[in-house]
Amino acid sequence: MGCILYTDNYKILGIDTSCDDTSAAVITAEDKILSNIVSSQSDIHKRYGGIVPELSSRRHIEMIWPVVNEALNRAKTSLDDIDAIAVCYGPGLIGSLLVGCSFAKAVGYAKGIPVVAVNHLEGHVFSIFLGKERPDFPFISLIASGGHTSLYIVNGFGQYAELGRTRDDAAGEAYDKVAKLLGLGYPGGPIIDKLAKDGNPKAFNFPRAYIPGPFDFSFSGLKTAVKLRVHDLEFKGQNKKMGLLNDIAASFQSAVVDVLVRKVEWAIVKRAIKRIALSGGVAANSELREKMLEMAERRGVDLFLPSPYLCTDNAAMIAAAGHRHFTAGNVASIDLNPKAYLPL
To answer: What is the dihedral sign for C-alpha 146, 149, 155, 159?
Structure first.
């Protein structure tokens, strides 16, 4: 379709129900966040040690309208002032995605508002543009979350070249599984990050999977190594030793961070690109941010980090990518369907 041009500043309503958080946001064409509401389901899923898809989709049905209404109220606007609705249509949990897509299409049809479909990964890429400092193209984008660990070269809007991805567990998924193994609860990332601050990262020599590719990732072996070590310690009756949990957390986190930083560094050297952007829930990890900053300074490259609250799934990032689709005329039809698997 042709380009849609507006002389006035328009507003985009973003909706994200890709996993276990119901989120709605309103942003302007200049990527200014007017509101960004996230309703967490952690209290529902933590008793199971992970996300239960059926419970997630049912909760989205209950929360979608209250969350959207709150986002509109916080932005001091209404649906009558919304120029487009940007909705995440994949990848993610299919039941959860169905709620968001169905809601967006229904509201769009009833109110005559165009709907644009946004890839969740593309949303993470453009979350960096919601901050004050924004990278020029091209830049290297690392997406590290509970469902994804991927490395891209971003040459411009709609121009993405995948350098590597995880071959098994995503980094965030490994955090959650190790946290469950250690009896720490869900979600695991923030808990392990906190425990690691008082631990010795060299206490256990957990493996780093520098697999060929050279930019692919693998974290399943690391998860298994932690499991075997914990079993060995419990067998020896050391599972309640003072500080041991902190050391395991620190050693595990060090292994994850080392691989992520090293792979990005290899990409910088091989592709000669001097700009890096991090996104995804794991990008909020304090050690990853610290080690990535140290590497960036050593290599003389610019590092762009979104605010921690923009690292996890949120609708503002969907709206940020969505308004670019909108101005390019990429409007979805009424038969838009979500996709559980959707590469970028």
So the answer is: negative
